[in-house]
């Protein structure tokens, strides 16, 4: 049964009887008062024109009108979701803002429910947003489940029937026993039995002093309301008790009354078109009732023509300055309703939870911890609904980094290379030497990775001429080959021991290397290997040739290791790009989804601030991030030996900050786009942009100036540089002493050595 026990029979009560039950309701006591209101989505062309409305406390006020009449727009202004362009409005004694959300219940036209939550989780979430304590929420869930005949609370919203979903949405609006209940077409698409149940329930609520504003397409159901307001094309045609209106225009049904008012309105427009475009504020019209022959003189209050809005503003500027901050803070209507609520048998002031010290404090004006926690908990519950997705979400960054670490772990090896050695060597009583063979042997075993860099094909395939080798490189069988000439040993010894400058001799001491230069990274590795092998041979030969003479450069590491690895360059950056991109992707998709479901507006109506929602998103995403980092860092540091030489806490902080930046980007994308697909495309674009130009895969120094400017404006570029510095710097910074410590060291070094500087 829908009706609660004390509500039986209340649906049969008339307005006066209900008013009596409520106690002393003064006629001047209105929960909603609107005068001369202009509003809509276009500031220059307001859709709502000259709206005047009086909604009495404890009454049912029905807004009637065809589709796109402006009913929802009026409700949004009352809820504080939309600012009026001009005019006066007072809701529950105050200028409407979403901060009044705890006193207002709102059931949007769309269901606006998270499909992945259960009924219980949904009601608990909204209860927390409305400042209720857990025990009270549970009590109310029990009462509402019985009253509204809801399925068990563990049922998922997505598994409910259309009617059950609508009743759940209704329960959310009713959960905190609001003073003003705003229902936007609660009966649309609902079967007649459920429609009757909803009306019975709301009639019962008015007995407790709850004011109901309801919009509907079904004109005849509004006959049960206390007041009805006909809306069309953003204007109010007339308002009043339904039976009074029918009597006033002498029609037997509300439908006929509404049609008549619409006809009169259209006729007035025609008259304006043909006669003049002058301002018409009040139109007197005569209605000759054809059915009974009565003649009634009716006054239809019609607002100013929208074209004359500017003219009106000039005439009466005070009427249009509602957007001034002064007026927003001090509404023109003096609130009486607060005190008068005391007379009700439904005392909302006592029901309101007392504010904690924190809530009274300055910061609480911006955010409320319980609301942040509720938002975060709700998001975690949704994530837990998809365990596989959650699992993948946590381990995928780890897998990407693991694959990347494996791929970048070593320099290239097993490069197909051939040594065409024609060196005849030198044979003297003192020395027997073939430098060509020495080079071949050195290159064969030279390695910086798990295997020798060169896969020397000399043993497998025999190439008999330089022409054959040239063709082999062109056909892709070899990456390259080296030609060591006949007198290489002799020429080399002559050149280096006797410092000969003979041109022919120098030419003979040079080994020509032919390479497929299309693969730049491999070429760099080959060059490095050849260079190192030659240095090694020279040191070994003990022919009086020192390493320095052969290669007069000696590289020493200030930061990093003497043999640099690509993984130390790419992995820190990859971690930051992943942290940024995942946060961006998850946040943007989440926000767009909430927008599409319509839950964002519903959340705001509960008085939840934007900061509460944003901090809820950030805290949930940070939780996911920490789980991701918990897998990712051990893989990089322990699995692949990329040591963090600097302060690890700073490294984590860097990842957290870049993730928060990603979330901010995600919020921006989420608010700008209207579809999940768009959010996905934007997120992917950002991911690839960051991956390619943030200096992670190739140094920023290689970019042209214009691209470097773009790159330097990307947050991931700075984060990548910082993470690489932290991981390779031997300089350790104590987080507690922080920058002070760094400055002190810097000053000390500059003073003592006059040249060393540590720039952090
Ligand atoms: N977000 C929006 N941005 C711009 N215009 C809008 C927006 N929402 C509604 N409108 C326009 O405002 C006008 C009034 O719409 P509103 O939703 O108030 O009508 P309604 O009477 O509630 O209709 P329905 O009964 O079909 O829900 C329509 O012309 C609509 O196109």
Automatic annotation (TrEMBL):
Major site of localization recorded for this protein: membrane
Location of the protein in the cell: Membrane
Transmembrane segments: 382-404, 569-592, 648-673, 679-698
SMART domains according to UniProt: AAA
Keywords: ATP-binding, Membrane, Nucleotide-binding, Transmembrane, Transmembrane helix
Keyword Transmembrane: yes
Start and end residues of each ABC transporter domain: 32-258
Membrane topology field: Multi-pass membrane protein
CDD domains to which the protein is assigned, alphabetical: ABC_DR_subfamily_A
InterPro entries on file: AAA+_ATPase, ABC2_TM, ABC_transporter-like_ATP-bd, P-loop_NTPase
Name assigned to this protein: ABC transporter domain-containing protein
Taxonomic lineage of the native organism: Eukaryota, Metamonada, Anaeramoebidae, Anaeramoeba
